[in-house]
Design brief:
Main location: membrane
Number of domains: 2
CATH class of the largest domain: Alpha Beta
Strand order of the largest sheet: 1-13-12-11-2-9-10
Shape: elongated
Structural class: alpha/beta
Number of helices: 13
Distance between the termini: 9 Å
Organism: Streptomyces durbertensis
Keywords: ATP-binding, Cell membrane, Membrane, Metal-binding, Nucleotide-binding, Translocase, Transmembrane, Transmembrane helix
CATH topology of the largest domain: Rossmann fold
CATH architecture of the largest domain: 3-Layer(aba) Sandwich
Largest sheet: 7 strands, mixed
Radius of gyration: 21 Å
Family: Belongs to the cation transport ATPase (P-type) (TC 3.A.3) family. Type IB subfamily.
Subcellular location: Cell membrane
Bound molecules: adenosine-5'-diphosphate, magnesium ion
Length: about 290
């Protein structure tokens, strides 16, 4: 595109709350045929809250919540924050944990009142040799409704499941539909549970889901799609998303997300709404049409 049409396009973007970092990004966006959307904080609000406490037989709900809140007290994960906040709101006093250890993309391990506590996904518990069969049914009850199941084991045995829900942003479904009308394939990527992700995807009309992706593998998934000959846009908000945003043909960061994501991206969507992705593609197509 000519410098003038790039300037016009960039200016229009800025007025629409879309900050485009380079002429190259504005030009490349017109040929995107695939857009990958992170789930938490991108499709959803990213403000998860605790909805259910489901103890296994022999465990009390309040006691379970106290133990989990203790184990999660030092975690910076949004799921941990939801649990610790809910415990405080319900007046549940968490004992103090020791030997806290976080396992990226899986959960946490802590010692609470001398007992070994594991909190996270089924993969974490299985990796630690816990027989999760007793908790699986409880977990599936949550994931079928789009809630994230947080499994708990105490001294190597399942103690229960906590469900955490995150609301889909108001215009996510509209944005997905608009992208598809532009001829773009939409893919969801997340570290979250497969069934939870599928339920959220169905809610917003996304057909292809990459779930249970470890943070360090998100960028690999982008490169794999590029290897299929696709031109890929990635939309994300988290520290986890930064490598994938950098690997994509065009990285678009949610403006309300982390600085690390914004720095790795070519475009920032100030409002955080996915409608900005649609506007960015339209703007790029219009800019490229003007110079031909
Ligand atoms: P995402 O932000 O997309 O969910 P993460 O890689 O941060 O991806 O986490 C992946 C999964 O690991 C979570 O969905 C959850 O099941 C588990 N997990 C990670 N950290 C925690 C934690 N502190 N407490 C409970 N579960 C966790
Ligand atoms: Mg996210």
């Amino acid at each position: 595109a000519t410098p003038l049409s790039v300037m016009v396009g960039t200016g229009k973007g800025a007025r629409a709350g879309i900050l485009i970092r380079s002429a190259e990004a504005l030009e490349t966006a017109h040929r995107l045929d695939t857009v990958v959307l992170d789930k938490t904080g991108t499709i959803t609000e990213g403000r998860p809250r605790l909805t259910d406490v489901l103890p296994v037989d022999g465990w009390d709900g309040t006691r379970l919540l106290a133990v989990v809140a203790a184990a999660e007290a030092d975690s910076e994960h949004p799921l941990a924050h939801a649990i610790v906040t809910a415990a405080a709101e319900r007046g549940v006093t968490a004992p103090r944990a020791s030997a806290f250890d976080s396992v990226t993309g899986r959960g946490v391990r802590a010692t609470v009142e001398g007992r070994e506590v594991l909190v996270g996904n089924a993969r974490l518990l299985r990796a630690e040799g816990v027989d999760v069969s007793e908790a699986v049914e409880l977990a599936e009850r949550c994931s079928a409704r789009g809630r994230t199941p947080v499994l708990v084991a105490v001294d190597g045995r399942p103690a229960g499941v906590l469900a955490v829900a995150d609301t889909v942003k108001e215009d996510s479904a509209d944005a997905v539909a608009a992208l598809r009308r532009l001829g773009i394939d939409v893919v969801m990527i997340t570290g979250d549970d497969r069934r939870t992700a599928a339920a959220i995807a169905a809610e917003v009309g996304v057909e292809r889901v990459l779930a249970e992706v470890l943070p360090e593998h998100k960028a690999d998934e982008i490169r794999r799609l590029q290897g299929e000959g696709r031109s890929v846009g990635m939309v994300g908000d988290g520290v986890n998303d930064a490598p994938a945003l950098a690997a994509a043909d065009v990285g678009l960061a949610i403006g309300t997300g982390t600085d690390v994501a914004i720095e790795a991206a070519d475009v920032t969507l100030i409002s955080g709404s996915l409608g900005g992705v649609v506007t960015a593609v339209r703007l790029s197509r219009a800019t490229m049409r003007n110079i031909r």
